[in-house]
Amino acid sequence: xxxxxxxGDLPDGVDLGKVVxxxxxxxxxxxxxxxxxxAQLSAGDGVCHLVQFAAGEYDAPxxxxxxxxxxxxxxxxxxxxxxxxxxxxxxxxxxxVYCTKIASRLVxxxxxxxxxxxxxxxxxxxxxxxxxxxxxxxxDELSEQxxxxxxxxxxxxxxxxxxxxxxxxxxxxxxxxxxxxxxxPVRAAMDLGGFEAEDIFAHS
Length: 204
What we know:
Blueprint: E1 2-7, E2 19-26, E3 36-42, E4 47-52, H1 61-68, E5 73-76, H2 79-90, E6 97-99, H3 100-107, H4 116-124, H5 144-155, H6 157-170, H7 174-195
Parallel strand pairs: 1-4, 2-5, 5-6
Antiparallel strand pairs: 2-3, 3-4
Helix pairs in contact: 2-7, 3-6
């Protein structure tokens, strides 16, 4: 694992390819209240780029350009949350996207365990530590443990996607998965608009 920490933006010249694994760390789970602190990115090559944001400083043209590039597939686990955070703080329209949690829910119907740790364990035989999940991501200096935790959230997503794509094809659910992925930016916009707890498709 190689971790490269950048302050405020990706450096010029960083090419993460056509499929980029992305995750975010925030101060909490309320996107409008809990600011974006960190964005993690990996091309699936064992290198993780971490972009750290100071409070209120979200002018990141290189990162924003990559996130907005329609020729780059953005690969997430629980994309709904990350897309909303990136939209709210960076103002980016993040698409196309792929969400390993949605893919897992569509094909691993034999279990209710769809967390990243569960996918790493079952599909890759990798044990992830979640010890730093609730730590202070707004700190000026992040610990080595925080950096390693943040990196681990993206380093395995490419391999997980490969496994889930095989299962989606096997079960004939690739098309419905793609439709769900395409809807995710709309779902994130609804969350930001105050509809996060309401199922507008429900009968009552």
